[in-house]
Design goal:
Blueprint: E1 2-3, H1 10-19, E2 23-27, H2 33-46, E3 49-50, H3 62-68, H4 77-81, E4 84-88, E5 113-118, E6 130-133, H5 139-151, H6 162-177, E7 181-186, H7 194-207, E8 212-217, H8 223-232, E9 238-240, E10 247-248, H9 255-260, E11 266-270, H10 275-284, E12 289-293, H11 297-319
Parallel strand pairs: 1-12, 2-3, 2-11, 4-5, 4-7, 5-6, 7-8, 11-12
Antiparallel strand pairs: 9-10
Helix pairs in contact: 1-11, 2-8, 2-11, 3-7, 5-6, 5-7
Amino acid sequence: MTRSDSAVDLASAAAAIAAARRVLVTGLVGADARAVLAACDVAEACGGAVDPGSPETARLVGPLVARIGAVTAAAADLGDRADLVVFWFCSAETKGTEAPTGIAIDARGAAPRQVVVGPWTGPAGKSPLRHLRLPATAAIDCARLVEALVRGMSLDETACEAGTLAVARDLAAAIAAAHTVAIVSDWSADLVGLAAWSTVSLVRTLAHIKPAFEVPHGERTDAAMAACTWRYAAAGAIDRADRLAPRFLPAEADAVRLIDRGEVDCVVVVGEATTAGAAAVDRAGDGIAILRLPADITIMQSLVALMPAALMRAAAEARA
C-alpha cells in the first residue's frame, strides 16, 4: 500500500501508523530542524525507528567515528582557509572534486597547493595537480603511516609496503610545510567504515599540531543529522525512538536494512528520501505501507496531535 501526501489525509495517516506493527520514519533530506523534531515525535509516539539515511550510520564502525569526533568544514572553506588541499582517494567523478583547480584563491592572493593521493589520474595532460599515486586498497595504511610520521613515531620500515611508505613520507613533508591543511574525502562507498575512521583519526592528529580539517563528500550534514544527534546522541539508525533510552544500532537499524529485511511494515517518508532509501522503498513494492508526507512543521505537528487517539483506537480494535 502506498499513499502520497496528495491522496491521504492526516487522520488516515495516523490510523495507518497506529495499526502498523513497526514503523520507520525516514527521508528528511533538506528539512529544517523543527520539521525533523516533529517527525521524531511521530516515531516516538508509536515506538518506531528513525533513520534519515547517512553513510556513517550504515557502517559497522559508525559509533567509533562518532566517539572520536571528526574535525570538518564546508567546501567553501578550502580556498579561504587552507594553503594545502589534499584530495584523499577521491575519484574524478566525486561531486565537488571533479574540478579541484577551481578552488578560489585565498585572501593572501595565493592559490592553495593541491595534492591528489590515490588512483585518480585526472585529465591527461591537463591537470596541474601533484599526484601521489596509490591503489585504493592502500588508503588505510597510508593514513596510519602519515599519522605516525606526523607524530614522530618510529617505524619498522621492513614491515611497510615501500610505495605506500614513500607516499606517506612525501605527504608528511608537504603537511609539515603547510600552515593550514584540508583533506577532501569521499567514503560514501565505505560500508565497513575503517577507511573513514582512518581519515578522521589523521585529521584529528593534524588538528592538534596546526589548523586542519576534513571536507567529507557523500556524508549528510543537514538538519536531520544534527536534530537526531541532539535528541538521540546519534545521527540515525535509531532502532527505537526514545529520548530517554534510544537504541542506536548502526549497520543494523539503518533505513535500507530495515526495509530490505522486512522488519518494518510501515515507512513514513517525510519530505525527500535519500537515493538509497528511495530505492529500498521501491524494492519493497506493495509489501509494506508507504506514507509520503511533506516536511512541513504544521502538518507534522498536526499528525503528532492525532497519534494518541489513533493508537487508542488501534488498540481497541486489536482487542475486539
